[in-house]
Amino acid sequence: MSLDDTLTTPAPTATGRSAVLAHLLDHLSDQDRAATKTTADRLREVLEQHGSATDGTVLVGYGGGKDSSYTLAFIRAVQLVLAERDGILFTLRSATNRHPGMPRAVMDNIDRVYHALGMYEDPSCELLLLDGDLIHPFRPDLPPDPAVTARSRADILMTGHRTAAQARPTFCNACNLSMVNSFGLAAAHGRGADLIVTGDSREEQRDYAVWINRLARQVGRDPRAQQRSGFPRVLGALDAVGRTYARTIHGEDTPTDDRGVHADVPADLSFFSIFDDTSYDSGSHWALLTDFLGFRFDDLAFSFTESDCANPALMAHLRGLTCEHVYGRTYDDGMDEYVAFALRLMRQKDFPQRLIDHMAKRYESTTGRTAVRQAVESFAHEAYGLTGTHLVCLVHAPFTARGQTLSTFLRCEHPALAGREAEIRALLSAPTSGPDTAADELGATLEDISGLSVPQMRQLYASDQPQAGELLDLVLQDDPHKERIRTQHSANGPIVYELLSGR
Hints:
- The structure is a single chain.
- This protein is α/β, with parallel strands linked by helices and 503 residues long.
- The protein is built from 23 helices and 8 strands.
- The chain has helices at 3-8, 14-26, 30-49, 66-86, 104-116, 146-162, 167-188, 202-219, 223-226, 230-250, 286-292, 311-326, 331-348, 353-364, 366-384, 388-396, 400-403, 406-413, 415-418, 421-428, 441-450, 454-462, 471-474, and strands at 57-61, 91-97, 125-131, 134-137, 195-198, 270-273, 482-488, 495-501.
- The strands form 2 sheets. A 6-stranded mixed sheet has the order 4-3-2-1-5-6, sandwiched between helices. Strands 7-8 form a two-stranded antiparallel ribbon.
- Helix 7 packs across helix 10, helix 12 runs antiparallel to helix 13 and helix 14 (353-364) packs across helix 15.
């Protein structure tokens, strides 16, 4: 559907909305059908408290995965119940924060869900697509913003080199801050939003608040955030975190205008939790997801605990490369470790057994792993412009902390350069703000190997590995997606314990 089609499709009649609601309710359990009514009652009360009972705006952050697809469908049912039963029609704003880790299959899933829920043709639904700070009407075929891709690529490389390719910080730190920024932008869009729907419990929301306060103490509180309350205050605190994080990773002189979190939102913006109303685990709503909404579990987009992002497959790939190139073991050794870890995460998150079995089968054979590796390598290049050579360099992290592993990296991966180590160190030890010598033959060679610019390599050379208590460490300090695993750091070495993170 083109943007013009979206904007000119005739508005549905009340009968049309009733038909959508009837089909939707047919695919909900008796318990969830009853929950749409009680949730509608509660939502109406909250909107009345906001003074917007008849013209409120309710925001759903829609990532395009299985859980957010169900959340959107449930709130769409609540919207239509209120409209049919009470004559109250609030605006349902659905906002998707697009990032390079989302394959096209995610956009296609979102498109099918919008069609199934009758949202394209309903003016009471606002469908937004966010690329960085840019907001567009949703279109599945809208090309990605090259600036967002370049920024994500730089974040992955710089964070990955600082953390020796630890999966969660490498792929998730900056992405999570971008997601929060999208909430602020979407909530401030147009006439603003009254409520943001969440599936988190009150306890989980309190845990987030504790985490944010810890980060805010680390970076120093923004006086503007202190003047706000509730969720706007949270956004203000995370704005300071995002800017400080960018300077930590990319250097103190890094411009941060596009690195913060948008906090200029309506003062009374608040969360509306559906945690106690319905369970959005996919096993309870399989027919709704796959039959009615048309959700498809794509081989890239469905990657371990995520159904809307291919980055977890890249995380597994990096573990394989780490074992193969850094520990002198095999790629399959690393995959065994990561797959076992990620399957445990899936069980902890109560994934349906059929999805756990599907994922285990994908990686159990040599043929399957070869196919996944080829697909992931192609995705890394297409999505981020990262080659296999770049990723091997990333797992070695040879430039960080005054080139702590540079000698080993050159000897093992680029022996032709081993005799030029002194020249490389001289190049990297020059001031980070010095002239860009990318045109120089040695600088250009290192850029081809790493995917980094010479100034970026110099920034890494001057930096240290993150220590406990520093911002890089604190961002994921309480993250549940990690565990200590038994592993070996050489082919015949002793058993050691290593912290593995991922999704």
